[in-house]
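Hi again,

Forgot to attach this to my earlier email, sorry! This is the prediction with zinc ion bound. I've pasted everything inline since the attachment limit keeps bouncing my files.
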Amino acid sequence: MQLKLYARNFRRRAKKCIKDGGGCCLRCGVRHRSFAFNAEGEIYILYLHAAHVFKNEKVDPNALLIPLCPRCHYYYDHPRGDTPEGIADWSFIGLVAKMFIEEESRKEEVCRISGMTSLLLPA
Ligand SMILES: [Zn+2]
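Structure tokens for the complex follow:
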């Protein structure tokens, strides 16, 4: 049996997540497909990730995704401490919270509209 790690629509949603984020890491602002250097000084192309805001939602087809560079994704999944380290971390937390609230509001709006629609349809 194959373990299901991600939702079936993850690849499509990941592309959209990066595009909707303007092609920039939500935390540090680095651009998708920009040139970067590794520890050995070798050049490589940096690809953004679509990170799950909540790690327990990886198989959820509607999970909230945020565009992060590999470095910020690593620190997001492996925080260095229990508290944010500085203004960049606080700013990032604010952006994620804003996205979460907007997404939840949008879901509520869809529910409200579809609820109204179902009232208008004949039974
Ligand atoms: Zn970053």
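The chain is about 45% helix and 15% strand. The beta strands are 34-37, 43-46, 49-52, 65-68.

That should be everything now.

G.
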